[in-house]
Specification:
The chain is α+β, with helices and mostly antiparallel strands. About 25% of the residues lie in helices and about 15% in strands. The strands form 4 sheets. The chain has a 4-stranded antiparallel beta sheet, covered by helices on one side. Strand 7 and strand 8 form a beta hairpin. The longest helix has about 30 residues.
């Protein structure tokens, strides 16, 4: 079927979707190359079809989503990509959509920012009630990413994302709330999360931080705007791309994101859950997106015996371990350790009614988190002294993906907590 790829009200290009695979089989005339999704190559007036297809498919629900088998069986479809055209590819994260050729459809009449939408797809994923005879597929849930079950809902006129947990602990929703508390204390731009309990299961809730004039662009697509040189690190490449695009204050934000992820032992800060925000009409970049999606952290899937601050954990997006990634931080001038005084008590408050996290697990997580705070404070102190006494110049070290060559030392004595000894 033939469509026009639209960017809000702006026609971008003619496309044809294969009926069986829902992939883009042909790209016709290009109307506005500057509005082609960021990071997709346009050469001699032609859009790279492979790149556009990858972008289009990335808008669909991942095949790894919890409950996806039930959704596919209920809707009698082969893959979640078959849902994209059912809602015209509309999303609550950006302003792209597809308009059937010769159709009178307008963005103003169907977008999810101003109009209601169906909750049927989300309800199926959540194993909730829905009308089986007449399922409505016009939903932003068709274009939501991530592996945890989630759904969009309109609450008091606001678009709210509701997301569940996994495994025996169902810990991710609690982690989201706790991470936002840390960000609030440290002054890190973030999306506030709250907790909702439904049928004894925890869910995190957050308002959409994108509106009808803006859009979120993932770090992955930012990094496709320039060719990465072999001698340049992933970290520096991202900063270089942001600089070329004139996106303000990105390095400072990345510093804060790395510190947060170190503290909470985040395992999944991949290149699709951080990025930048731009104006969808003027294409002017506003800045880095606030912190969101921090649930895969705090030893969420580890048994009690494996919860400790010194356990080696893989991480993303720039290094595969937190100690090396912390060395990328240029400045800790913004970091106020006193702001985190006794914050672990908030984790106990957040999880106080949990049926999945018992007191032993709460205590073990709090203890390990306090140790990571100590380790961070020790590192910051050494880092500051080195820079002060040696006049350490790190301006060129970033090419080697190292901004400070000191060690992140493990705690030798876990009984004393430096943060507890700090006066407010």
């Amino acid at each position: 079927m033939n469509y026009v790829l639209m960017h809000k009200r702006k026609p971008v290009a003619e496309i044809k979707l294969d009926k069986q695979t829902s992939s883009i089989s042909k790209i016709g005339e290009v109307f506005a190359k500057e509005h082609v999704p960021l990071g997709i190559e346009v050469k001699k007036g032609q859009i790279n079809r492979g790149g556009l297809n990858e972008w289009w498919k990335s808008r669909s629900i991942p095949a790894t989503r919890v409950g996806i088998e039930q959704l596919l069986e209920t809707l009698n479809i082969r893959s979640t990509e078959n849902l994209l055209d059912k809602s015209y590819g509309l999303s609550l994260s950006d302003q792209y959509w597809i308009c059937p050729t010769n159709s009178n459809l307008k963005w103003d009449d169907i977008n999810f920012f101003h109009h209601t939408f169906s909750e049927d797809v989300g309800n199926i994923l959540f194993d909730m009630e829905y009308k089986k005879e007449n399922i409505n597929l016009l939903s932003p849930d068709n274009t939501s990413d991530g592996w945890l079950k989630k759904k969009w809902k309109i609450i008091d006129g606001k678009r709210v994302l509701i997301k569940g947990g996994s495994g025996a602990t169902q810990q991710e929703p609690y982690n989201e709330v706790f991470a936002s508390k840390i960000c609030e204390r440290l002054g890190i731009p973030h999306i506030p999360y709250s907790l909702m309990i439904q049928e004894n299961y925890p869910y995190s809730m957050c308002e959409n931080f994108i509106d009808s004039d803006t859009e979120l662009i993932s770090a992955w697509y930012v990094m496709q705007t320039e060719k990465k040189q072999n001698h340049v690190s992933v970290h520096q490449h991202y900063l270089n791309c942001c600089e070329c695009l004139e996106i303000p204050d990105v390095e400072e934000f990345i510093d804060k994101m790395i510190v947060l992820d170190y503290l909470i032992a985040n395992e999944d800060r991949h290149q699709y859950n951080f990025g930048v925000i731009r104006n969808a009409e003027t294409l002017a970049f506003i800045g880095a997106s606030p912190i969101f999606d921090s649930g895969t952290s705090l030893w969420h899937d580890r048994p009690l015996s494996l919860i400790n601050a010194n356990q080696k954990k893989t991480c993303k997006p720039f290094k595969n371990n937190h100690e090396d990634q912390l060395k990328l931080v240029q400045s800790f001038d913004w970091f106020e350790p006193v702001a985190l005084y006794d914050i672990e008590s908030e984790f106990h408050d957040i999880t106080k009614d949990s049926l999945f996290i018992d007191d032993k697990r709460k205590d073990r997580i709090s203890f390990a988190f306090r140790d990571r705070m100590d380790m961070l404070l020790e590192y910051v102190n050494v880092h500051s002294k080195e820079r002060y006494f040696s006049g350490l110049d790190v301006s060129n070290d970033v090419k080697k993906d190292v901004k400070y060559t000191g060690e992140v030392k493990p705690i030798k004595n876990n009984k004393k907590n430096k943060f507890r000894d700090v006066e407010r």
